[in-house]
Specification:
Elements lengths: L1 H10 L2 H22 L1 H25 L10 H55 L4 H34 L1 H23 L5 H43 L4 H11 L5 H16 L5 H27 L7 H35 L5 H7 L9 H6 L1
Helix pairs in contact: 3-4, 3-6, 3-7, 3-11, 4-5, 4-8, 6-7, 7-8, 7-10, 7-11, 8-9, 9-10, 11-12
């Protein structure tokens, strides 16, 4: 039987055989990513944190007058300590707000039931609907209301899981920073000649610089949007304004649907919270949407530039793929991962064709090594 299969594979055209084995490799990698998600998710978060810390370290050393006197190792320690303190503080804020929200959930669920029932009755009295359509809308209403406790519970589980993984993430990040120089030297030693080693080192440095730039700018943009959202919600009296602002910061990493969810959740709360109503809800929706659209449509594209030149179809496919493999964490990481792939592919001559295909308009960043030598 084995000899028959070998003979069949030998008769297969080379192109078909390559497609077959490439598909097998893709399926194998997908299975490994799914099966090992408890390892790969913290590892991926740590990788992006490492890039963020390196960028923050460079910022510290660029401080006028005093930055040049700060040694590299001390700048790394300051950057790492800053990120750790910020993440621990944010995790604690989110954890407390989630616990409070879960305790108050019956009150908001009852209020939401009251508001939605009143809306259904008004529609039934003022607009002529077929009985089947009315029954269908009521069924949808009941299903949505029934999903709220489980949805909030799932969010709470995700938050607690990520909080419990912080120690692991910080350890991974620390070892990545320590091993960073050694790893680059080991990669370079895979090349046979001195010129090839220099070439590899230069490509890795350029890719690292571009990734650090993208992650830093995207994080900064999300922080600005979250801060503006917090000011809006605090001024309007929306409960849990700090929590919703943090959720907006995290959700803005999710393409397309992230900003929509980040706006709809506080808008819905403005509708059902004590003292809220339709007017407050519409005002919240308008102001938050305006802030999201201004930064998402005008500021961010001009700041991030070509590093986020991704096709919308590729973004949706990436969202579906990583969401299936890693759940909510995969949805948060899908765009940074895809952008990283685009940047890496664009900086290597042999893979630039792939970068052009997954980009939005085919206008990808030039190879920086060539720019320097020109």
């Amino acid at each position: 039987m084995g000899s028959q299969q070998d003979a069949y594979l030998q008769r297969m055209p080379d192109g078909l055989a390559r497609v077959f084995f490439s598909l097998a490799i893709v399926l194998l990698v997908g299975y490994l990513l799914y099966a090992g998600r408890s390892i790969f998710i913290p590892l991926t978060i740590s990788l992006f944190l490492a890039f963020l810390i390196v960028s923050l370290k460079d910022t510290i050393r660029a401080i006028p007058k005093i930055g040049r006197f700060i040694p590299q190792f001390l700048a790394f320690i300051l950057a790492f300590a800053t990120i750790v303190l910020v993440m621990i503080s944010l995790a604690e804020i989110v954890r407390r707000n989630i616990d409070t929200l879960i305790m108050d959930l019956p009150l908001y669920q009852a209020r939401l039931t009251e508001v939605s029932t009143a809306a259904m009755n008004w529609l039934d009295k003022n607009i002529s609907f077929a009985d089947d359509l009315v029954d269908g809308l009521k069924k949808i209403q009941q299903d949505l209301l029934g999903q709220i406790p489980s949805l909030v519970g799932d969010i709470g589980i995700v938050v607690r899981t990520l909080a419990a993984s912080l120690v692991t993430i910080f350890l991974y990040t620390a070892f990545m920073l320590v091993e960073r120089g050694r790893f680059l030297r080991k990669i370079a030693k895979l090349s046979t000649s001195r010129a090839d080693r220099e070439h590899v080192n230069e490509i890795i440095r350029d890719i690292s610089d571009l990734l650090a730039k993208y992650i830093s700018i995207k994080t900064l943009m999300n922080m600005i949007v979250a801060s503006i959202s917090f000011i809006i919600m605090y001024a309007l009296g929306i409960k849990y304004a700090g929590f919703w602002a943090l959720m907006s910061f995290a959700l803005n990493y999710i393409p397309i649907i992230g900003s929509i969810i980040g706006v709809l959740m506080p808008t819905l709360l403005a509708l059902v919270q004590p003292g809220g109503g339709v007017g407050l809800s519409l005002l919240t929706l308008t102001l938050l949407t305006g802030a999201e659209q201004f930064f998402g449509s005008f500021v961010e594209p001009r700041t991030v530039g070509k590093s986020l030149n991704l096709s919308p179809l590729v973004i949706l496919l990436s969202l579906a793929l990583w969401g299936t493999l890693w759940g909510f964490a995969g949805m948060l990481l899908c765009v940074p991962i895809t952008v990283a792939a685009l940047i890496i592919f664009s900086q290597i001559e042999e893979t630039r064709a792939i970068a052009i295909l997954i980009s939005d308009n085919g206008d990808i960043a030039p190879i920086r090594r060539k720019e320097k030598s020109a």
